[in-house]
C-alpha cells in the first residue's frame, strides 16, 4: 500500500498520521501552524475532517441529539459539530501548504459532498472514521475514486469490518488499511487489546494500524511492536489552548518523541536471528573461558583447583571444564594462562 508514494507495510517504519481534527479552534492560521508543527515533528501526514454540522447531524433539541457523559457532556450534537468543524474554504490552503512543506494532507469525509470537495483537491487518500465504518454507501462512494482508503474500526465487530472491506474492494479500491481503534475520548489503554492487530491482519489480509485515543505514547509504541504499520494520534499546538479534542491530543514535542520511538521500536523488531551482531563483535572477547589459576609442570595432571571459568574469553569454552580437569599438561604452564588444547592432553580414559 502507498499513500502519495510513501510505502506502508511491515518493511517500513509506521506511517505516522497527525490528526488535526478540531484543534484549529476556529483559526485558519492555527490550522496552518499545526501542519507546520506536524512536519517538524516528523509526521508523515496530517489528517483533516471534512463535514458541516448539517451534513453530519440534525439541528434538533430532541433527547437523542444530546450528549450524555464524557468530554462533551450536555452539548447538542449540532452545537458540538458547529464548534468543531473546519470551514471548507480552509481545505485548499491546507493542502497547498502540505505540498509546499512535503507532508501529505488528506481527510475524513463524512458525506458525498465532502468526497467531492476532496476529489477536487486531489486528496491522495480517504479516511473513514469509526462512526462511519457502517456507512457502506459512503465507503462505496469513496472507493469509486480509486484512492487508498483507511478505515477505523472503533465499535465495529468482525461482520461490520468485513462488510466495509468488501464494499471498498468491490467498488474499485485496491488499497485498504484498517485502524484498530477504541472510540473513547480518551480511551483507557487496557481497553485496546493490541493483540487484535495481528488477528486483524491475518483475518482480513490488509495493512493494520492503530487509531490511538489513549493518553501518552506507550500504546502506540506497543502497537508498533505487535505489527501496526500506521499510527494515528490527535495533535495540537498546546493542550492548554483548549478545544474539543485538546484533552487527548499530543503537543509537538510529544509527537516528535513518538515519531522517534515508534521508528526505534520498528527497527528493533527485525527478523529472527542468532548470529553475532556488529555491536557485539568487540565484546565477545569478554565472555568467560577457562584459565589456569595455579602453575603446573609438564606432565602434571590438572585438577579443579587449577582451573576456573573467568573473563576474558581467550581460553577454552567453559563447556570443556569437565574434560580439562584430569587432562595432562604438555608443557609447564604459568598461572593466569588461558587454556588451549595445544597445551593439554585429554585424559586417555575419556
TrEMBL record:
Example GO molecular function: transferase activity
Residue ranges of every copy of the AFP-like domain listed in the record: 289-347
Keywords: Transferase
PANTHER family, per database record: N-ACETYLNEURAMINATE SYNTHASE, PSEUDAMINIC ACID SYNTHASE
EC numbers on record: 2.5.1.97
Enzyme class: transferase
Name the record gives this protein: Pseudaminic acid synthase
Key word Transferase present: yes
Alphabetical list of Gene3D superfamilies matching this protein: Aldolase class I (3.20.20.70), Antifreeze-like/N-acetylneuraminic acid synthase C-terminal domain (3.90.1210.10)
Entry-linked InterPro entries: AFP_Neu5c_C_sf, Aldolase_TIM, PseI-like, PseI/NeuA/B-like_N, Pseudaminic_synth_PseI, SAF, SAF_AFP_Neu5Ac, SAF_PseI/NeuA/NeuB
Alphabetized PROSITE patterns for the sequence: AFP_LIKE (PS50844)
Amino acid at each position: 500500500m502507498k499513500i502519495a508514494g510513501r510505502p506502508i507495510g511491515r518493511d517500513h517504519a509506521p506511517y505516522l498520521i497527525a490528526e488535526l481534527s478540531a484543534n484549529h479552534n476556529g483559526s485558519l492560521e492555527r490550522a496552518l501552524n499545526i501542519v507546520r508543527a506536524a512536519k517538524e515533528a516528523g509526521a508523515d501526514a496530517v489528517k483533516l475532517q471534512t463535514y458541516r454540522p448539517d451534513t453530519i447531524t440534525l439541528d434538533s433539541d430532541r433527547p437523542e441529539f444530546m450528549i450524555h457523559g464524557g468530554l462533551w457532556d450536555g452539548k447538542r450534537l449540532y452545537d458540538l459539530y458547529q464548534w468543531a468543524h473546519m470551514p471548507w474554504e480552509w481545505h485548499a490552503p491546507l493542502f497547498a501548504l502540505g505540498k509546499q512543506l512535503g507532508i501529505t494532507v488528506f481527510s475524513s469525509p463524512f458525506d458525498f459532498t465532502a468526497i467531492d470537495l476532496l476529489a477536487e483537491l486531489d486528496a491522495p487518500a480517504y479516511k473513514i472514521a469509526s462512526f462511519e465504518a457502517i456507512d457502506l454507501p459512503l465507503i462505496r462512494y469513496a472507493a469509486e475514486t480509486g484512492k487508498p482508503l483507511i478505515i477505523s474500526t472503533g465499535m465495529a465487530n468482525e461482520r461490520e469490518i468485513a462488510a466495509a472491506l468488501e464494499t471498498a474492494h468491490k467498488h474499485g479500491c485496491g488499497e485498504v488499511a484498517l485502524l484498530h481503534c477504541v472510540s473513547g475520548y480518551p480511551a483507557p489503554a487496557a481497553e485496546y487489546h493490541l493483540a487484535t492487530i495481528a488477528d486483524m491482519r491475518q483475518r482480513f489480509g490488509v495493512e493494520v494500524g492503530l487509531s490511538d485515543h489513549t493518553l501518552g505514547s506507550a500504546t502506540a509504541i506497543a502497537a508498533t511492536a505487535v505489527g501496526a504499520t500506521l499510527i494515528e494520534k490527535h495533535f495540537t499546538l498546546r493542550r492548554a489552548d483548549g478545544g474539543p479534542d485538546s484533552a487527548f491530543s499530543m503537543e509537538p514535542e510529544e509527537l516528535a518523541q513518538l515519531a522517534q520511538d515508534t521508528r526505534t521500536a520498528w527497527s528493533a523488531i527485525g527478523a529472527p536471528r542468532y548470529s553475532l551482531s556488529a555491536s557485539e563483535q568487540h565484546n565477545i572477547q569478554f565472555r568467560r573461558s577457562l584459565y589456569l589459576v595455579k602453575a603446573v609442570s609438564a606432565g602434571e595432571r590438572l585438577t579443579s583447583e587449577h582451573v576456573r571459568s573467568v573473563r576474558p574469553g581467550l581460553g577454552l569454552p567453559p563447556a570443556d571444564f569437565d574434560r580439562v580437569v584430569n587432562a595432562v599438561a604438555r608443557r609447564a604452564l604459568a598461572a593466569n594462562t588461558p587454556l588451549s588444547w595445544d597445551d593439554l592432553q585429554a585424559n586417555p580414559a575419556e
